[in-house]
Each structure stands twice: as C-alpha cells, then as structure tokens.
Amino acid sequence: MKGERNYWMGVWGQRLSRRQALRSAARASIGLAGLSLLSCAPTARQAPAVKAVPETVVFAFQENPASLDPHLDLGRGAVALHIHMYDGLYRYDNEYNVWPGLAQSFKLLNDLTWEFKLRAGIKFHNGEDFNAEVVRFNVERHQDAASKSRMIADFNDITKVEVIDPSTVRIVTKAPNPIVHHKFLQGLIVPMQYVKEKGQGALTTQPVGTGAYKFIRWVKDEIIELEANENYWGWQKGGPFEKSGHIKKLVYRPIPEQGSRIAALKTGEIDLFHNISADFYKAVRENPDLDILESPAATQPMIVISQLKEGPLRDKRVRQALNYAVDVGTIIKNIMGGVPLRNASFTGPSTKLSYDPNLKPYPYDPKKAKDLMAAAGYPNGFEVVFDNPELGHDKQNEIVQAVAEYLGQVGVKTRIVPHSRAENYRAKAKTDGSGPVGIMYDTSYTPTGDPDFTLWQKVHSKGVANFGYYDRAVADKLIEDARSTMDPEKRKKAYLEVTRLFYDDPPCIFLWEPKYTFAYNKKKLPALRVIQWMPAFYDYSV
Prior knowledge:
Elements: H1 2-15, H2 18-28, E1 56-61, H3 76-85, E2 90-92, E3 98-100, E4 103-110, E5 113-118, H4 132-143, H5 152-155, E6 158-165, E7 168-173, H6 183-186, H7 192-198, H8 202-205, E8 213-219, E9 223-228, E10 249-254, H9 258-267, E11 272-274, H10 281-285, E12 290-296, E13 299-305, H11 316-325, H12 328-334, E14 341-342, H13 366-375, E15 382-389, H14 396-408, E16 412-419, H15 425-432, E17 439-445, H16 452-458, H17 473-484, H18 488-504, E18 508-510, E19 512-513, E20 515-521, E21 530-531, E22 534-535
Helix pairs in contact: 11-13, 17-18
C-alpha cells in the first residue's frame, strides 16, 4: 500500500495548485487528518505473522440484515456484509483517514465542481463494467425517492453529474461542500445495467458488486454465504491489498442473544461476533482461545434535554445542573465495564475536527447541581418524563435507570417511559411535533468521522434528528459555515467554537464514546483486524 500512498500524494502535488491542494486536503480529510493517509491500517493490537490463512470464517452479528442492497440497509450487520461485496469511490481506516477506492484521485475545478478519476478495467461480479456512467446512475438512484435510499439526504445537494469519459466524472453541488467524497464512503457502488434489467429490488436478495467477495446464498434468519472474488482489483498487482492474505469463504449468522453468541464462539460454531456486552468481557478474557478486538465507534449515546415547551429545561443553568448531577464516571466503571471514553461535549475523540481535548467533562457535583437549579428558580426540583426508546444499546435500561436515580438525588423526579423499536418513537415524535417534552435516551453517529453529519442532523435547528429542539442562531451559523467553507482551518475553528458553545449551553447530558467490540477465536484468527465495526476479511495480514 506504500506505492498507492505515494501515487495518491503525487496526484495532489502534480495536478493541483497550492490553493487547490489546500481545498482538496480539506475535502479528503476527516478533520485535518486528510494528509495522514493509510500506509498500514491501524489495528486494535499488532497483528502477528501467520503461516496460513483460514479457508472459512463464520461470523455473527446481533441483527438479521433487512436487505443486501447497500443503499437500503445501514445496519451494522448489513454493512459488515456490504463492504465485502461492494466498493465505494473511497474507503477509510480505523482513524477515519480516507483512501482511494474505485476512484483514484480528484481535483476541484472550482468550489462547486469536483472531478473524479476512476480506476479503469473494474468489473462487477456479473461481468458488467464499472465506469463514470455507473457513478452517475448511483447518484441519481440515491436522489430518487422511489428507490427508497437511506442516504437520500446525503445526495440531495448534488445538482449535476457530468460524464466526461468512461474514467472521468464531474459532480456539481448547489453550494460549496468540503466533504463531497464522504458521500461515497457509505454510498457503495451498485451495477447500473443489473438494476435496470432486474428491477430496484433485485439487490435485496441477489447482490452484485465489485468487491472482494461474491454472493452465494441466503437462507433467511440462518446464514448468508459469500466466496472470494479472485479477480478482485484490490488483490491484483499494484492494488492496495496486493500483499494481503484473504479468507476464501465467509459465512454470516445472525444470533440475536448475547449468551448464545458466546456459547457458539466457545464451541467453535462461530469464529467472531459483534458486539460483546460488558457482562461478558471477563469470560472472554479468561478463555485462552478467545480475545477481544476494540475499534473506535464515533458514536455518542446521550440524554437529550428537550426544549420543546416552556419550563425548567429551557434554562441553561438547569441543563448544566443535570450534567453535574450524574456521576457518569461511575456508570462507565460499574455498568459499562470501564470501556467507553468520557465525552466533555457533543462529539467524542473519534470526531477529530470538533473534538477539543482541553475541555474537561462535567465533574460529578450534586451540590453545584442543586445550587444551579435554585438559582434558576427550582430549589425543590421538578418532574420530567424520561423517554427510553429501544435502540439496542448494551446496558441501555441500566444506564437509564442509573441516570434517573442520580437525578432523583438532586430533586429531579423522572417517570421512565419505554418505547419499542416497532413504535419508532423518536422519528414519529419529531415528525408530528409531539415531543419529547422531558428527557430522552438517544444517540448520535458520525459514519465518516466528520462532524457535519451528526451536528447538522442532531443540533441544527432544522435537523431532522434534533429531538431536543435545540435552537441557537449562533450554533446554526457555525455549523452552516463549517459545511460550506473549503478551508480546513476555518472548518476546524467553527467546529471547535460550536463544541465549546454546547459545553456551556448543553443540549443534552453528555455521556461517552463507546467502542465497537468483537470477541474472536485468536487461535484461528491471530492476524484478524477490524475497521470500524467491520472485520477486514479481505485484508487478512500475513
């Protein structure tokens, strides 16, 4: 991969002016790390050399994929399959650094126009060619409401896709956008002719990509099987994984219950699973055949504080008090097994561009919490509804109960209201404007490591997932400025300002950034690596 690094850097140096290179660096970066590109993907631990690569690996996730169409299902289990069958124009590593995928390079023609150079000679598993027309088709598919793409909002700022030649495509946006290429990290590329001939639903059960693995079969609720695509471009001479070993056959099994996953791992029925609960850390660590891999999550659970209606929660002193009232450190230690990293503000350390290491998390200080509430006019506390929508998070109910108990100790009485997944409470409440009106367990997620996604959706006044109805003109402007400037320094400055604003005027009770965790058979897979929540079977280091 060293050669690819030199080429990628050379493209910037040879083709772009100094000003354009700065802009491109801003676009290719996650934060300011765009020039820190992948020479060897970071791992949770140093992978030892191994003499042989396993022929078959059986891995398990909690959920059963709803679709094998990468535009329709963004669940963790589904994506772990998608990234082995499909490619994006770009890919990233565990530090959210960006590397070329199906695109080899890009340049900015102006602040609205990106020109991408694509790899030549790439074919889909069915023999169909990958080219610029296919890129245009994928963008238009995301934008078409009829396709039901889960990423329609990410592509609706693109006004035009121009095919210059089979290996050159230009993308024009409505306004300057410094992270256009991030759209193609999760926006994996599907085949144009196949979809046109077979219909929009064909990829759901019969996926066809350009990736390292080809689909074999899917037995609903039981297994999904893939086999290595030996013609995969990444394994060929000069490809990024030319010297990597790879597993020949992948078998995916959905196993919803944690104890069943542990039992299957111990007996050798499976070789790897995600995600391991804090309750089972000790059992895995004590087994000489097993171990745990950890990966940055760029996810932040939080307790959203609603400002939808008049009342104490609209006073920032009260919201500060709620943060002082909860002993987050003890919850991390006693409930979460000490694994997560404490958050001081809205985003955590994986979201580098908005992370301020100088901010210290709110300390546990119930006296200060009571003093702040008294100053705000609530010396005797108040009552709130505590909505708890089922999100499938480890220890979620225990976390909610612990937070409620800490709040009760400073006079904030809570009534916990559970909501099932089927109810889809968060989305419905936002759509009809009914709530939440108190506090709510929620989460934010930054799929590319850039803060734009989560801040725009979660705390901008027009954000579709702004469940706390946070509305600050200064925050809106900072978020808007950061998403419209091509200057990386200006982006970082804006995001740090908004991070400090949230610390002083909190939209939520800040909790932590968890880690994605994988329990695995270390004797069978001694060189296994993970990238985000995805085992890298295509890059099994030998």
